[in-house]
């Protein structure tokens, strides 16, 4: 690798970014998931690559094209996403990790190996769920990356909850996202966020996710110098 230049300030750095939802199987034909579009994570991956970073994108199932010049690892479940993070961090020194994925908080405790059948003696149905590992907290705990950035999806007390998550997970920065707003965030092309660090808060204007991603990548670069 050559020395970083003005156009490629991230040359020589490796960024690992998670994106999209995870999909937790119930049986061979059913699953639990969420509405994450993956757009923010993919935009961040593209923005970092544009500035010269080597990028590994770990993506849940989304109908987005894998970006050029980016190694994309497709996974389904949270457990698979964590395994992919561990493998990539073992093989590479990761400078920046961004957890943009909407990881399912719970998975099915016992995935049925055959399609589940309706029972005729009851109208009710219970599924036992078990907590998934916290991927980003594990990235911090196992020192998988030097600088760790999370997202916080909130519908109320956005900044306060984001600050809690920053501290609890041991993150360097957290990008707080108000997912109660229909005009931004989940499944939208635009987003408006507040970036919270231990001693910083920064609120860029509402923008297209591609533009916002580029601003966020530059901000992360400044903070991690
Ligand atoms: N996250 C993760 N692994 C999980 C859950 C969340 O890595 N099992 C990451 C997300 O990728 C995000 C951050 O943690 O970067 C915050 O996710 P969020 O869902 O907002 O917070 P949770 O810690 O799951 O708390 P809650 O959903 O209860 O608000
Ligand atoms: Ca969650």
UniProtKB/TrEMBL annotation:
- Tell me how the cofactor is bound: Binds 1 FMN per subunit.
Q: What is its EC number?
A: 4.1.1.36, 6.3.2.5
Residue intervals of the DNA/pantothenate metabolism flavoprotein C-terminal domain: 10-221
Query: Which region of the full protein is contained in this chain?
Result: 185 to 409 of 409
Q: Which cofactor does it need?
A: Mg(2+); FMN
State which gene encodes it: coaBC
Report the sequence similarity comment from the record: In the C-terminal section; belongs to the PPC synthetase family.
Binding, CTP: 105, 115, 133-136, 151, 165, 169
Please list the coiled coil stretches: none
Query: What Gene Ontology terms describe what this protein does at the molecular function level?
Result: phosphopantothenate--cysteine ligase activity; phosphopantothenoylcysteine decarboxylase activity
Reactions listed under catalytic activity? (R)-4'-phosphopantothenate + L-cysteine + CTP = N-[(R)-4-phosphopantothenoyl]-L-cysteine + CMP + diphosphate + H(+); N-[(R)-4-phosphopantothenoyl]-L-cysteine + H(+) = (R)-4'-phosphopantetheine + CO2
Query: Where does the record place the region Phosphopantothenate--cysteine ligase?
Result: 15-225
Q: Which organism is it from?
A: Marinomonas phaeophyticola
Q: By what name is this protein known?
A: Coenzyme A biosynthesis bifunctional protein CoaBC
Q: Which keywords are on file for this protein?
A: Decarboxylase, Flavoprotein, FMN, Ligase, Lyase, Magnesium, Metal-binding, Multifunctional enzyme
Copy the pathway line from the protein's UniProt record. Cofactor biosynthesis; coenzyme A biosynthesis; CoA from (R)-pantothenate: step 3/5; Cofactor biosynthesis; coenzyme A biosynthesis; CoA from (R)-pantothenate: step 2/5
Q: Does the keyword Lipid metabolism apply?
A: no
State the function annotated in the UniProt record: Catalyzes two steps in the biosynthesis of coenzyme A. In the first step cysteine is conjugated to 4'-phosphopantothenate to form 4-phosphopantothenoylcysteine, in the latter compound is decarboxylated to form 4'-phosphopantotheine.
């Amino acid at each position: 690798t050559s020395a970083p230049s003005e156009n490629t300030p991230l040359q020589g750095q490796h960024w690992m970014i998670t994106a999209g939802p995870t999909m937790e199987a119930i049986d061979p034909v059913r699953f639990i998931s969420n509405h994450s579009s993956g757009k923010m994570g993919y935009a961040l991956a593209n923005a970092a690559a544009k500035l010269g970073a080597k990028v590994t994108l770990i993506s849940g199932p989304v109908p987005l094209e894998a970006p050029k010049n980016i190694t994309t690892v497709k996974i389904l479940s949270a457990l698979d996403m964590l395994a992919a993070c561990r493998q990539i961090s073992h093989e590479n020194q990761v400078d920046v990790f961004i957890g943009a994925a909407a990881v399912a908080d719970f998975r099915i405790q016992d995935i049925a190996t055959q399609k589940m059948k309706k029972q005729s003696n009851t109208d009710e149905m219970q599924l036992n769920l078990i907590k998934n590992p916290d991927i980003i907290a594990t990235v911090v705990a196992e020192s998988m990356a030097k600088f760790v950035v999370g997202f916080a999806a909130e519908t109320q007390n956005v900044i306060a909850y984001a600050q809690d998550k920053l501290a609890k997970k041991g993150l360097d920065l957290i990008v707080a996202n108000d997912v109660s707003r229909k005009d931004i965030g989940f499944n939208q092309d635009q987003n408006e966020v507040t970036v919270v660090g231990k001693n910083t808060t920064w609120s860029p204007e509402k923008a297209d996710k591609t533009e916002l991603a580029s601003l966020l990548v530059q901000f992360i670069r400044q903070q991690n110098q």
